[in-house]
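Consortium newsletter contribution from the modelling node. Members have asked for a concrete example of what our holo predictions look like. Here is one, prepared for the zinc ion complex that several groups have been discussing at recent meetings.
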Amino acid sequence: MQFDTVIHGGTLVTSSDVARGDIGIRDGRIVAVAENLSGGDARIDAGGRLVMPGGIEAHAHIAQESSSGVMGADDYLSGSVAAAFGGNSSFIPFAAQHRGQSVDDVIATYDARAARSVIDYSYHLIITDPSEAVLHDQLPRAFARGITSFKVFMTYDMMNIGDGGMLDILSVARDHGAITMIHAENNDMVKWMNGRLARAGLVAPKYHAISRPELAEEEAINRAISLAKLVDAPLFIVHVSTAGGAAIVQREILAGTRLFAETCPQYLAFTRDDLDRPGMEGAKFVCSPPLRDAATQAALWQHVKSGTFTSVSSDHAPYRYDETGKFIKGRDIPYPQISNGMPGIAARLPYLFSEGVVKGRISLQQFVSLSSTNAARTFGMTDKGSLAPGMDADIAIWDPEATRVMSLQDQHDNMDYTPFEGLELTGLPETVMTRGALVTHKGSLIAKEGQGKFVPRAPMRLLGDGYLAKERDPAQNFGAQI
Ligand code: DUC
Ligand code: ZN
Ligand code: ZN
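And here is the predicted structure:
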């Protein structure tokens, strides 16, 4: 058999297996997996290394304006390069509709921005304006193009679409096989807390943590699940930050609800004490939902281990520690005006490997599931996330024994800080390829700008009976077809 590239001598890791073997690649695809493969125009020695499906970053904000018009620091070039150095071979950032915009225009804008990517990409649409034209004309066009997921907000005045808007979106998603991602926080609880804190003059960054109560997340997760069940639509809860929220997700998954969820390294690595760093340093740790406490970290790790979470995503939201980012509204500002988000696209997988696999919390197979395979299956990247013949040759080769201390100098994003500064890591990605082409290799960027391609994604295949609310069941609702 002819191969463009053979990766030989490594330990292959998938979501189910760990075994020694070689991988043969031709025309961007894996065409052979065997104990020994000879030949290959190029041969990559993976002796002593782990060969895994490349990471799929399913939650990142790249070249995206916030609702108040603040552009994140990373474009599709810097964002994709940083992602690749962090072990990712593809990603799914957001394409954000702001009110009044058409989805077609939004997609055209992001197509132009994403043309710089060095790794394959798709987008989750953010919908903030579910008008009739959006629901019945523009979204179906987006699905037809293979954009089969979107995010809606239950918080932020400029973003949240109300329960009725969510029902509309969920039911259109259900009809087209799309999955709806939810930022679940109760908007009024947050606003009420903000008002109390402001009246008491408590506006330092650390008060961000208590302004967004755990109850606000738990209530919103419960409500989102009820809304999704009413229309039997699959739901993905993003950035779960609370033990209570994770417990609700676990209970509903066990009950058969079509539910998926993620948490993020920042909720495992940091606590609200980081928001209380000297001066305004706490601004670096302002993200929503906010950082919690040590007991929450332990509970979230337990849910990572036991399978509650589909994936661990970065929620990379890069606002620099300067007047272009965190302090766009001024240096000495109350916490609600600090730009909301933390960078971490390159830290996600080294963090999860080092703290998860090396420290014995999760297996290698779980690492692959949480970093790649589950995202591929949930979001319809049918050719990615595995090492089977026929799949895209999206591969990451890791040195499980390499060590490094995280530092800003080693980052490839456009940020001026990393919250993970000083973290001791064991296990690092050494090589990343997308469709058989090297992106990074031994610390060098090999890929050319624009090497990444848009990936049309498949609709979700819904398994099982789903949920039929009595009131929507013609046998129990006087025959109403609603
Ligand atoms: N939600 C996100 O998913 N990312 C950044 C900020 C936010 O509110
Ligand atoms: Zn969010
Ligand atoms: Zn996000």
